[in-house]
Amino acid sequence: MTLLRVEDLHTHFISRDLDNQIRVARALNGVSFALEPGRILGLVGETGAGKSLTATSIMGLLRPPARVVGGRALFEGRDLLAMPEAEVNALRGRDISLVVQSPKSSLDPLTRIGDQLIRIHRAHRKASEKAARERAVEMLASLGIPDPARRMAAWPHELSGGMAQRVLIALALMNAPRLLIADEPTTGLDVTVQAQILDLLRDLVRRTGIGAMIITHDLGVVAHYCDEMAVMYAGAIVESGPVRQVFANPSHPYTANLIGATPERLRLGGPRTVGGPPPNLFRLPEGCAYRDRCPQAGADCATPPPDVALGAGHVARCHRVAA
Amino acid sequence: MNPVLQVEDLKKHFPAQGGRTVHAVNGVSFSIAAGETLGVVGESGSGKSTIGRAVIRLLKPTAGRIRFQGRDITHLPESACRPLRAEMQMVFQDPWSALNPRVRIGDLIAEPLLLHTKSSRSERQDRAEHLARRVRLTTELLTRYPAELSGGQLQRVCIARAIATQPKLIVLDEPTSSLDLSVRAGILELLAELKAETGVAMMFISHDLGTVKLISDRIMVLYLGGMVEYAPAARVFAQPAHPYSQALMSAHLPADPEAVLRRHVLEGEIPSPIALPPGCHFASRCPVAVPACQETAPELRAVHGDAQHQAACLRIAEGANRIPETAHG
Ligand SMILES: Nc1ncnc2c1ncn2[C@@H]1O[C@H](COP(=O)(O)OP(=O)(O)OP(=O)(O)O)[C@@H](O)[C@H]1O
Ligand SMILES: Nc1ncnc2c1ncn2[C@@H]1O[C@H](COP(=O)(O)OP(=O)(O)OP(=O)(O)O)[C@@H](O)[C@H]1O
Ligand SMILES: [Mg+2]
Ligand SMILES: [Mg+2]
User: Fold this and answer.
1) Residue to test with chain B: of A201, A268, A294, A314, most B Cβ within 10 A
2) Where are the transmembrane segments (chain B) (predicted)?
């Protein structure tokens, strides 16, 4: 069974302005993707595209004024968005884990890391203090943390960025989840540390068959560690498919532009890469949201673009793409 | 031709708690010619920013010699450094905090002209418009405030300020790290253009190996404040000689799924710059270290007789510097 299937997810920020008029920011506009067990999906897109919001929407972690206004998020066939809150809470931290962006701020600064690991385990699984402690030490060791028994007593502020990130991943894995969502798990870390952490994640997925979604804006991470990728623009997936295929044949003009802007493809002194301001979520244009920035836009782009299947699970949402 | 910048055996130490010393930079030597871009790479804390700030004399060096356009500026007093700043400029990582939020963009761009030239108000205004166009900002932005611009636009403002006085050297400390890919590409294109047109020398500091590879002519690899390798950019990526460079380059993830990775995983953690080990600073983590490495600090030497390619490793001479690969995937 598909581990996670997100269908047409819409999340809005609904607020009132000074004149008491309702203002709606359409931050997610029909996000759809699927993740199979034992696979790694990379979710990419520029800042503000809605990557983190996709994760928090699925996990039921939105705070007002953000609200899911449509769509489904099926975890092993059950819709997380329609479940009673108690059930979602029971799944979260046990069967589904989220590693949030910015590692330092998400560790409890007043609790030793060992106690944090033990606490999350015992909150969700029946385990003695001793068994939980043993599992915590094992988990730290398996994440390549030297001298794990001693590190259990460390305070968060004593950890380097790379160590803090490993501890966060250890926390996420303590309860052997079946789905792991990691939001920018290696951003800001040195490349050598990044590679180690991603190696660990990939080994874990291959060994245990869990499914993982990595949110990143680093296409190098996607190219080498993900099986599938989904490209997000203005709150929608504009292209998705197997990584090699999307890189070899980027079909949505936004994807082509994004991949063309990587240092590997960029030709300094060649034709200019088109950047542009991010779209205004309060006033998204009708039809394709990329229209204003798109070099290939035409009159038909004012109507909603179709999802065009390009074979082997490769899909692009664009009027210009021929199947 | 004389290099724009010549640095010999530069050291910078900071005082630390308990009377101890942080050995941030431990004897680096390099030069940058007009029109040349030197890339500086190394892990966090390896001394990149400290070197950048020392060479334009925002910091006072502990030892060594810095020559700028042939002139020894190592010990210039602060008052004499100020006029020099018209000729050597710096661009920082975070454009949001680099600019005064209460000053209009036009005045921000004109500020270096006010500080360093005797131009009239209207001359400065003309020049600011010219500079804005030069970095591809529309002139309507000149009357706005920083909060109304995007990160990429603000970084262009910082670059416009840096080139306002036609400097001979610009130190760029992670100038594109906080920017989105397509915005970053635009900035890199701009820098390449400026370099070709003005012949300015650049020192480009970055964690992003792909970007450094693209923009640099030569690259210097740092480990714990020391230079371990110094070579043309393509060489450092294709044939890194120092074991640390090999490990660092192998961790680079090019945005191309077909690129083959040769992964070398390093064990252990970087030693503290307060208690530097004797001998080669990398020896404690080096897979090919021998006892001699712990004793003698290796000097930069030409690799296989190629003066362009230098590395500091005892094991190169015996051809024993290659570290083993681990399989990827
Ligand atoms: N209170 C709010 N009202 C309106 N829009 C909001 C509000 N809070 C966030 N947003 C918007 O929601 C969008 C989704 O943001 P999200 O954090 O998911 O982006 P992201 O893709 O994770 O970006 P990054 O790469 O910077 O982490 C952004 O465009 C943001 O501006
Ligand atoms: N003002 C200071 N006082 C004390 N120590 C300092 C000071 N500035 C830098 N250091 C230390 O000097 C060393 C080199 O720091 P530097 O900022 O140059 O590294 P970097 O290579 O730029 O790192 P990053 O990639 O994180 O920017 C570090 O150990 C740092 O803690
Ligand atoms: Mg985010
Ligand atoms: Mg720095």
Assistant:
1) A268
2) none
